[in-house]
Amino acid sequence: MISNLDYYKSFFYVATYSSFSDAAKALYISQSAVSQTIRKLEEELGTTLFVRSGSRIVLTPSGELLFARVKTAFNEFQRAEIEIQNFESIAQNNISVGITETSLRYGFFDCLEKFKNRHPDVHLSISGNTTPEMVSFLRDGKIDFALMIISDSLAARFQDLKMRRCFRIQDIFIASSKMDIDFDREYDLKDLLSYPTISVSQISNFRENIDTFFQENGLLFQPTYILENMTQVLNFTKRKFGIGVLPYAYAKDDIKKGTIRIVNTKPIPKRTVYLVSLKDKALSGLGLELYNDFKDLPRMV
Where are the transmembrane segments (predicted)? Predict the structure, then answer.
């Protein structure tokens, strides 16, 4: 193996330009330095690589053999440089964010749309996962930051994360306006459980908050219907399957229409929308811009 790979670089340029002086100009070094480098390369290989033919420098058969290999290597180097530049360009224009479906209902979808209109070439990757999954993705570097709706007590568990409060949201009990319920009455939680109830599964911070709420009031919350998502909870409630529980944002349109109504009870503890990122990872460029857009979203909730 040649002791100095720069020898090959000088050889490549001399062979390409068929000139020591032109190679020196391309390499921004002196012609004597180029000549000395070629001489050392020939000494290490034990062969002559160039001979003069009139005013030009031409390759010897050994030089032709070496140039074919070196040229291939340099072409690969150049291709790698281009690929790296392209990769970095894509990386700088790619933003990965963890956002729950509920978060999008609190104005973040409009925020994303405005950002995309400002930066149409940006690649936005949106992951809608559970809180534990998004925490894992943050720690593994799969997403730049996340929007999480969690209780303040749960937020305190994540010591390695930067948690910025955005605003608080209210979960509510609802029922079809056609259901036989006294909507003017404030129901005791125990009386509420005498009706069929509808909720999402326990594998969510939403259910953790609801379950804790009932436990603190000496009750066990065991929904009659356990569904996959909030949209299903809303639809089952509208069909009079029972009393549903979900974030206000899912129900507000139907509440305005009068198709469903709020069932009055002791208020469920509010949860907080957090902007979450790794403490030791600074956001930059467009990622920081989108983060600040979310941070400055009007708190009209």
Answer: none
Q: Are residues 290 and 161 in the same domain?
A: yes
Could you tell me if residue 125 is left (phi over 0), alpha (psi between -120 and 50 degrees) or otherwise beta?
beta
What is the number of structural domains in the chain? 3
Q: What is the pLDDT of residues 46-88, one digit of tens each?
A: 999 998 876 778 899 998 999 888 888 877 776 766 555 544 4
Cβ(171)–Cβ(234) under 8 Å?
no
Structure tokens at 30: 């002196």
Same domain, 265 and 279: no
The phi and psi torsions of 215 (rounded to 5 degrees) equal -60, -40
The number of residues in the chain equals 301
Burial 157-173 (b: 16+ CB within 10 A, else e): ebeebbbeebeebebbb
The CATH number of residue 60's host domain is: 1.10.10.10
C-beta separation of 243 from 175 below 8 A: yes
- Per the DSSP assignment, residues forming a β-bridge with 243 are 197
**Quick one: 175 and 164 in the same domain?**
no
Mean pLDDT of the chain: 85
Q: Can you give the residue range of the structural domain that contains 61?
A: 6-91
d(CA 239, CA 236): 5
Rounded to two decimals, what is the model's pTM?
Answer: 0.62
Residue 95 CA to residue 290 CA, distance in Å, equals: 9
